[in-house]
Design goal:
By secondary structure, the chain is α/β, with parallel strands linked by helices. It folds into 2 domains: about 325 residues, Glycosidases (TIM Barrel, Alpha-Beta Barrel), CATH 3.20.20; about 90 residues, Immunoglobulin-like (Sandwich). Helix content is about 35%, strand content about 25%. It contains 14 helices and 18 strands. The protein has an 8-stranded parallel β-barrel, surrounded by 6 helices. Strands 11-12-17-14 form a 4-stranded antiparallel β-sheet, with no helix packed on it. A 4-stranded antiparallel β-sheet has the order 15-16-13-18, covered by helices on one side. The chain starts with a helix and ends with a strand. It binds ligand G2I. The site of ligand G2I has 9 residues, from loops.
């Protein structure tokens, strides 16, 4: 991390506090991160991008966007409603500004997005068009916008969100007017307008293997078979705390095996507010899991976060009561998720020291063909507890069957355990353990446990 001048005083105070805490714990001081994410990513040949708002690209926001990321996606500036609010009148100001900023900072740009059902101008959505007119409008829009930035954008999200959750085509202006072939038409027009840009189809809830991602998979396979230009799929990855799909790497791999690139295009991981250290620790583990799923597949070109700061995130206005979804807080302080991203990219950072001096550690003590016995130890040093609650999310479908010395419940993947009447107290320097049995199949990875 390279702090701006304004944050140095706060950082110094934080480091003093951290050093004091670590002295108490007798641990080795955490090393401050000093290599920007973009350099770590570049060393691995990967993209580490962020969505940005053009008007904010000054001051601390601009410093971080330029320093930490090697790719930018305009969050809204290139959408049809932004660039052509009334027919024939174009407004390229914000899009041009973002592209210029990226070029000045040696960053790629991901164009977002050409053909979508949302954020279209009202003249377009309220018009009544014959199929030929609609097709002309779409092709002209693509020729104009892609042509404007020809040779300067690495990538275009050509078609955005074409599927419903069940894998059926979403009923949109485009699908209803032109049929499913609007997708092939759009890709063909984009290739003609800029032969060097990588062309993607981008969607959400397609991160794991499910009906929607399978529909996308089948579409890409058939486009490839037909010779329609398609270079990649974008998995948006608007995720919920503790719910990174366990099949993400497998899903990325199956697209790669079709001969297309994969990008994580809009990563954020939302939580119920307020955030606390347990949630932020879980979020860091979730960010790392997504990074690792991408890094494990060579055709996964990289990860873009959908806003790098909680002050520039769509979550709070769309999901009231939720937020804290990005790697930096609202004051541009890096969160544990930032350190987790750096670590996954091979950075020499260590996770910021825990603010709690009690920790919970999960271990599998024995395992057989379908079952296992596990244990969680809660240890305190420099602090004490009079009651405790721990939780974790199973990533591979494991199911708790029985627990002792704690009261445990499992809902979906999430297990929550709280102390029994007799073992809530964990003294300073002491520990408490509880045990459980569970079932597993395929794999039985150790989950990240949060205390609190
Ligand atoms: O909805 C989250 C993302 C899902 N995938 C496609 C992305 O393009 C989409 O991004 C969001 C933007 O982050 C929001 O900023 O798309 C939203 C619209 O669907 C954007 O929200 C809009 C608000 O609805 C408008 O009221 C506002 O004027 O942002 C506009 C600009 O701030």
């Amino acid at each position: 991390m390279r702090p701006s001048r304004s944050s140095r005083a706060r950082l110094a105070a934080l480091l003093t506090a951290a050093a004091a805490l670590l002295l108490t714990l007798g641990a080795t001081p955490a090393q401050a991160a000093d290599t920007p994410l973009r350099d770590l990513a570049a060393a691995k040949g990967k993209v580490m991008g962020t969505a940005v708002t053009g008007s904010k690209l000054t001051g601390a926001y601009g410093d971080i966007a330029g320093r930490e990321f090697n790719a930018l996606t305009p969050g809204n500036a290139m959408k049809w409603g932004s660039v052509e609010p009334t027919r024939g009148n174009f407004n390229w100001a914000e899009a041009d500004q973002i592209v210029a900023f990226a070029e000045a900072h040696g960053q790629q740009v991901r164009g977002h997005t050409l053909v979508w059902h949302s954020q279209n101008p009202s003249w377009l959505t309220n018009g009544s068009w014959t199929p030929a007119e609609l097709s002309g409008l779409m092709n002209d829009h693509i020729a104009t916008e892609v042509g404007r930035y020809k040779g300067r954008l690495a990538t275009w999200d050509v078609v955005n969100e074409p599927f419903n959750e069940d894998g059926a085509y979403r009923q949109t202006l485009w699908y209803n007017g032109l049929g499913a072939d609007y997708i092939a038409q759009a890709l063909t027009a984009a290739r003609a307008a800029d032969p060097s840009a990588k062309l993607y189809i981008n969607d959400y809830n397609v991160e794991g293997v499910n009906a929607k991602s399978t529909a996308l998979y089948n579409l890409v396979r058939s486009l490839k078979e037909r010779g329609v230009p398609i270079d990649g799929v974008g998995l948006q990855a608007h995720l919920i705390l503790g719910q990174v799909p366990s099949t993400m790497q497998q899903n990325i791999q199956r697209f790669a095996d079709l001969g297309v690139d994969v990008a994580i295009t809009e990563l954020d991981i939302r939580m119920q507010l307020p955030s606390d250290s347990a949630k932020l620790t879980q979020q860091a583990a979730d960010y790392k899991a997504v990074m690792n799923a991408c890094l494990a597949v060579s055709r996964c070109v990289g990860v873009t976060v959908w806003g790098f700061t909680d002050s520039d995130s769509w979550i709070p206005s769309t999901f009231p009561g939720q937020g804290a979804a990005t790697p930096y807080d609202e004051n541009y302080a890096p969160k544990p998720a930032y350190a987790a991203i750096a670590e996954s990219l091979g950075g020499g950072t260590t996770t910021p020291p825990p603010t709690d001096a009690c920790t919970a550690t999960y271990s599998v003590t024995s395992q057989w063909n379908t079952g296992f016995t596990g244990q969680v130890r809660i240890s305190c040093s420099g602090a004490a507890l009079s009651s405790w609650k721990v939780s974790w999310a199973y990533g591979a479908g494991q199911q708790l069957t029985q627990a002792w010395n704690a009261t445990c419940t499992q809902s979906g993947a999430t297990v929550t355990c709280s102390n029994a009447s007799y073992n809530g107290t964990v003294p300073d320097g002491g520990s408490v353990t509880f045990g459980f049995n569970g079932s597993w199949s395929g794999s039985n990875p150790v989950p990240t446990v949060t205390l609190g």
